[in-house]
Each structure stands twice: as structure tokens, then as C-alpha cells.
């Protein structure tokens, strides 16, 4: 098999751990697999480099910043390659420009445009283990770019897609995807498998195990993904296309996010174009709005409530207060002490009563729901931040996720 | 003017010093000069990276080692570029492969084959300050190489030659080239100017201010070099082609080296081919022999004494002991407690009595001369290591170097 493996920053945090990674790779190699290994920077290194740049100026030029921070993966990939040599295995470390991995010119959040696979295939055919520096690419003019946070996952999945790999393993410091955050729910269970769509919804609603972009890429190119720990031999979670078995699972997991804030604008004239007037200046600042709720009153006025990333809360609030004046709105309110709790499951498509059960469960625990949003396979509720853990635990229990992995159908109301 | 500047590791050791470097560059820029700036890695970084690799294995694969250690200059060049931006000056950092600086494939000690100057010239024409990561290059297949110790000096001089720069300034932690090591000779004087040849002889005989390779390169391409400190505004030493004024200076400086060891092989048959038998196995191990002295006895036997770098002493001694047996030599002796003291000066070509004065001075202080070697503009004596400082001081005084820069002719015996 051709396997692409990706090791995160904690997995290569020091030489001892890089040794353990090398031993794992060699075990695969001994079984006859071809290996392409993507590495992140040693834990803390990217932040250290960004901090150096920020000490010079708050907004360093992004081309130079990428040149700087791409060294993190260069160091770790070289060290892993040397480690493999020390065990007598031929290895070669390749940087983004050496593969090459061509990207757009959007420094610090470039997107992969094309991967040339000839060099990698050539090394593989000669028996080499190929190490690829994650997170980085190159523009057509030879400038170094980086892919943004979680970029090494994207590198791994994109390489797996381009190479037609049989499997893409993402090694990290958790054992896989859980029914809920194990730090909150003690009997959270590791999922054996989950569909791309479910993983996407879980990632977008707060599960941090994988970046959304890499899951999207895996879904588009049908790359079988495995998330697992580099510290144990435990099997991880397989992320693949939805199958019949998955459809039977109504709720696969509970996620939460405390990274959002809510802004409400009350008593705006309810006429066409108002929403655009509110959201255009927000969008122009690059602030991403997540949930939006609009309610109309009989008096021709409307209230609009929406959420933004908590880091953008202050800026968004200032913008909205200006807009509110222009629109003659009654008042503006904001709250950055909120949490979004979500339930995710492919089975929701074919099962009814799931939302009701969620709302009832929260109500039973005295948790007020401020906002609701739904997708085909996800229901999210915004609640007071202080109830986060309580809500996650209650929902985890209500949907029987801790007891057994597959909730029996008859239990769903 | 187009000026190439090179800043060493101590000059960019931290953000504060990088700021000072940026300010110096901006001063030049304000005067209307075009600037290409070569930087070394932040002090200690290259050693830190090499040490990481050596912790994994004693002899790491050299391609991967170069990939690893080239990150040092990548970081410092990016930081300097960001620093210039923070002052509002457009700058761009270029890596070896981006210039590109093509080298041979001899990893860790590659030689520059060709520098493409189009990209640099393009940035200069747009008003950019161009920062180039020193010490690194790229092979034609896109692999990163490094140029060996002092490689950033070579990068700077090679760039100056390729660009036809008007001046190449080497900024370091000393104020220039001195008549002797100021740590040993308190009244050592900084030389205002010196010829390439003298600088070469001084570098080869122990002065550490510049790597020989970069001086050779400057000499071949007639690049005017300046060595000066990045910590003061003092004028440095100009290294240029020999002129009439220089010819009048009999001795420009006294140098010493404690990096050598002596090996003697006594009583070898004095017949053709013996020297080759002795030195071939040494050369095959990559050990460089500096001085060689052979003396023949009436009985058809000869003694051969030579020096090798002290780091190679043990290995060379083992080889010679083997060779001595094969040749039926009488005995082998070694000594790694020696020093080489040299006097260098362009005026030696036209002045007599210089060597005599040197030998007499050493004799007057009771210092025994073990070996002598001479070139057109240099005389070196190997002495007991413990007399190093005494010899340097005595010669410095004998040739009046501390009193005034240009020794008067009538004083030479």
C-alpha cells in the first residue's frame, strides 16, 4: 500500500519523540508499504517564530513571515530524515518548493493549486521514505507560502489525493474522534468510523481534531483518512464515505465551541436591503458571520441576531453600533459569554424527533437556548457559556453515546 | 553605488542587534545607494542545529544536514527584512534557491558555480533592499547546499562580483584587520588598507577575520572589500589590489595559529617515491598538510617533518606509524603543542633582511624555531606553543608595528 502519514507538532516535539515516529514509520516500511510522511514543526516552534516577527511589528509583511515560519517544518522534516538514516533506512526530506507543491499567492493562508508528484514517485521507486515538510508551498515565482493553521493536515491529504494513496493517517496527540470532548465527558467513546460529512460538521462546530479544509479535501478526492495517536498503538478513527451502517447512527457526537460571540440589533426597519447594510461592513473587515437569526415584528421592525468569532467581537460590535445609528435601530446588544453546543449525526437525515430531544434535554437542565441553527446532519444551539459542560454531558447521556457506540433506534423519541 | 554588505552572526544575534543593522542599512539607503545585504545565522544557531543532528547520529547524511542548517540564515534574513519593513523600507529576503545561487553538489562545503542576478536586479530597480540568506545555495536539481564555515562571506563576495558591485562590506565583531591580535598585543593597530595577497597570507596563517575563500574570490574578481564592525562607526580595513604605498610596507602584520600539530618521521630511506608513500595515505583521508621539511643525511637516510591541522593529528599519527613500519623508518615523533607565528607584508618582495630580523628577534627571546616556511610575502616559524604570545609581541615590537602603521625603511636591517 502507499500510505501518507502526517505527524503533528507534539509528535515531533523533541528528538525522543522523533525517534518514536521513526520507529513507527520503519514498522510500516518493514511490512512492505511505501511511505510519504508529512511533518509539522516541533511543538511551539511556529508560535516562537511568529512571536519574533510580532516583536518587530504587529503586522509583519506576509511574504517575509511565511519565509520565516516555514523553517519550522524544514527543521523537523530534516531531523526525521536524519533519524531514519540513523536506523539505516534511506530517507529524503523535501520542502514545498522541492516537491513542488504549488499554491496561490495568498501568504499565510495559501491554497494548494497543484502538486507535482514525479520527484516523490521517483524517490519511492528507489526505496526511499519520503518526508515532506508540511504547511508550506511555493508560488509559481518561487516564493514560499504557508497554508494557515492545520496546514500540515491539508498537505497530507492533498499529497494522498495527488499520489492516489491508499490511506492517509493523521497522527496527533489524541486517539481519534470521540463522541464528545473526553475532558468534559468522562465516558466519551472513540468512534471507530465516521463519514466525511459528519467530520466536517464536527470540525465546524468545535471538534479540534482536524481542520475543516483537510476533511473537505479528503471528501472531494475520497481519500480514506485515519486519525490516531502517535503515542499509543490504539486504532484511531476512520473517516470515509458514508455507508449503511453510519446511516443508522442518529447522533455520532456532541461538540461545543466557546470561540463565538453574539451581537443583536433590535428594531431595525424591516425592509429589503437592511441585512446587506448590516453585514457588508462586517464582511469587508474579513469577519466571518456564523449563525444569523431574523425576527420580524408586526410594527414593521425586525431584530437581527448573529454570531462572530470571539476574537472579532469588539471590532464587529463597533461596526454594528455605527450601522445601527445609520439605520435608526432601537438598540444594539452584545454578549461574548456564549457557547455553541451541537449534535452531529448522519442518521438525522432519516430520523425525526432528534431536535426535539435536544431541546427537551437542555430545557430539563434549565439551559436557555438563545439561537438555533441546523444543517442536514447537525443541530447547534447557542447557550450561556457557563452551561457548556453541563449541556455537553446531558446531551451525551441523552443520546446514549457513552453506553454504546451505536444508539439503538427505538430509544429515539 | 551598489553596495553588498554582509553581517555576521554576532551582528544579528538578537532583535535589538538586527534593529541596529537595519538602521545602518537605512542610512546607506538614504544616501542613495542600492543595497544587497547578506546575513549569517543568528549567533549560535548553526551550532545548535548541527548539535541536534549529531545527537541523532555522528555522521548525519549531508544533504539532510544542509537542509537543516540552512534554516539559520533563512530565519535571520526574514527577520531583517521584517525589521526594514517596520521602518517603512521595502525589503525582500531571498534564499539561495530563490536568487538562485547555483553550487556544486558537495553538501556542507559546496562551491558556487553561478549566480543568476536577474531577480536581485529586478528588486533593486523597484527600490527594494535585497536581503540574501548567506552560506546557502542550491544544486541544479533543487537541493539545498551550504558553503562551509565562513560561507556567508563567500556569498557576499560572489554576489558583489556577479552584480559588479562597487564595494563589498563585511560587518563583523572586530573593527578591521590589525597588525596583530589585539588580545595579545595591546598596542596593535588597525590597518587602513591591505592588499588581497597580504590578506590571504594573513588568513592562511591564522588571522580569523576573513575566510580565505572569500578573499581569493575578491582578488580574482577585483571586488574592493571592507572589513568593519557592526557595533561602531569606526572605519574598517580596506582590502584592495596592491598599490605603491603598500609596497613600502615591509611587514603589515603578525599572525599566529595554534591549530596545527607536527609529525616527524626519522631515518627513512632517502630515495625517489618515499615522500609520495608518506603523504598519499594522509591525503586520502582528506587531511591537509601545511608545511613540509625534508633533511637528508650522508648515510642515505632522511628525516621528514610536516604539520597537519591539530584536529587531524591523532589520525595522521596513526597513519604515519603504519607507513613508518612499511618503510623501515627509525622512529616517528609527534607534537601537538606547537604554534605557527608568521609575519606578512607585501614589501618583503623588495626588502632584504626581513627573515634575519625575524629569526634574531625570536632567538633574542630564547624561542627555538622548529620549522620555517616562506612565501613571497610571508615568513612562518613553528615554535613551542607556550611562546606564542611572547613571539607575537616581540615581533610586533621588532617591526615597529604598534608605533606607527608604516615601518620606516631605514629601520630594517
TrEMBL record, chains A, B:
Chain ranges of the ACT domain: 263-337, 343-413
UniProtKB keywords: Amino-acid biosynthesis, ATP-binding, Kinase, Lysine biosynthesis, Nucleotide-binding, Transferase
Amino acids binding ATP: 6-9, 172-173, 183, 208-209
Example GO BP: homoserine biosynthetic process
InterPro entries hit by this protein: AceGlu_kinase-like_sf (IPR036393), ACT-like_dom_sf (IPR045865), ACT_Aspartokinase (IPR054352), ACT_dom (IPR002912), AKii-LysC-BS (IPR041740), Asp/Glu/Uridylate_kinase (IPR001048), Asp_kin_monofn (IPR005260), Asp_kinase (IPR001341)
GO cellular component assignments: cytosol
Positions of transmembrane segments: none
GO molecular-function terms, A-Z: aspartate kinase activity; ATP binding
Family of the protein in this entry: Belongs to the aspartokinase family.
Protein known as: Aspartokinase
Protein source organism: Thermodesulfobacterium geofontis (strain OPF15)
Lineage per the UniProt record: Bacteria, Pseudomonadati, Thermodesulfobacteriota, Thermodesulfobacteria, Thermodesulfobacteriales
Amino acid at each position: 500500500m502507499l500510505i501518507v502519514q502526517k505527524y503533528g507538532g507534539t509528535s515531533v516535539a523533541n528528538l525522543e519523540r522523533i525517534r518514536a515516529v521513526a520507529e513507527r514509520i520503519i514498522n510500516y516500511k518493514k511490512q512492505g508499504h511505501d511511505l510519504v510522511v508529512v511533518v509539522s514543526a516541533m511543538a511551539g516552534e511556529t508560535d516562537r517564530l511568529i512571536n519574533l516577527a510580532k516583536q518587530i511589528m504587529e503586522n509583519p509583511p506576509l511574504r517575509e513571515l511565511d519565509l520565516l515560519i516555514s523553517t519550522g517544518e524544514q527543521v523537523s522534516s530534516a531531523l526525521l530524515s536524519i533519524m531514519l538514516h540513523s536506523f539505516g533506512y534511506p530517507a529524503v526530506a523535501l520542502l514545498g518548493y522541492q516537491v513542488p507543491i504549488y499554491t496561490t499567492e495568498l501568504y499565510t493562508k495559501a491554497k494548494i493549486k497543484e502538486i507535482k508528484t514525479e520527484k516523490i514517485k521517483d524517490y519511492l521507486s528507489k526505496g526511499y521514505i519520503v518526508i515532506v515538510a508540511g504547511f508550506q508551498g511555493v508560488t509559481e515565482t518561487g516564493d514560499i507560502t504557508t497554508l494557515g493553521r492545520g496546514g500540515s493536515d491539508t498537505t497530507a491529504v492533498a499529497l494522498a489525493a495527488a499520489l492516489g494513496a491508499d490511506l492517509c493517517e493523521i497522527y496527533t496527540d489524541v486517539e481519534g474522534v470521540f463522541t464528545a470532548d473526553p475532558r468534559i465527558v468522562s465516558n466519551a467513546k472513540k468512534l471507530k468510523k465516521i463519514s466525511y460529512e459528519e467530520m466536517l460538521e464536527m470540525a465546524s462546530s468545535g471538534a479540534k481534531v482536524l481542520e475543516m479544509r483537510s476533511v473537505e479535501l479528503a471528501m472531494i478526492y475520497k481519500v480514506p483518512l485515519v486519525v490516531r495517536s502517535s503515542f499509543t498503538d490504539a486504532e484511531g478513527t476512520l473517516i470515509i464515505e458514508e455507508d449503511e451502517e453510519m446511516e443508522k447512527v442518529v447522533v455520532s457526537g456532541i461538540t461545543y465551541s466557546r470561540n463565538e460571540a453574539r451581537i443583536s440589533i433590535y428594531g431595525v426597519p424591516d425592509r429589503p436591503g437592511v441585512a446587506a447594510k448590516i453585514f457588508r461592513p462586517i464582511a469587508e473587515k474579513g469577519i466571518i458571520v456564523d449563525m444569523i437569526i431574523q425576527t420580524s415584528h408586526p410594527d414593521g421592525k425586525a431584530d437581527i441576531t448573529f454570531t462572530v468569532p470571539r476574537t472579532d467581537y469588539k471590532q464587529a460590535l463597533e461596526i454594528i453600533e455605527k450601522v445601527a445609528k445609520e439605520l435608526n435601530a432601537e438598540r444594539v446588544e452584545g454578549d461574548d459569554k456564549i457557547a455553541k453546543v451541537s449534535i452531529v449525526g448522519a442518521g438525522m437525515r432519516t430520523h425525526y424527533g432528534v431536535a426535539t430531544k435536544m431541546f427537551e434535554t437542555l430545557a430539563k437542565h434549565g439551559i436557555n437556548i438563545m439561537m438555533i441553527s441546523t444543517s442536514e446532519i447537525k443541530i447547534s444551539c447557542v447557550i450561556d457559556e457557563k452551561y457548556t459542560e453541563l449541556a455537553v454531558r446531558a446531551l451525551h447521556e441523552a443520546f446514549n453515546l457513552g453506553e454504546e457506540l451505536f444508539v439503538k433506534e427505538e430509544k429515539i423519541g
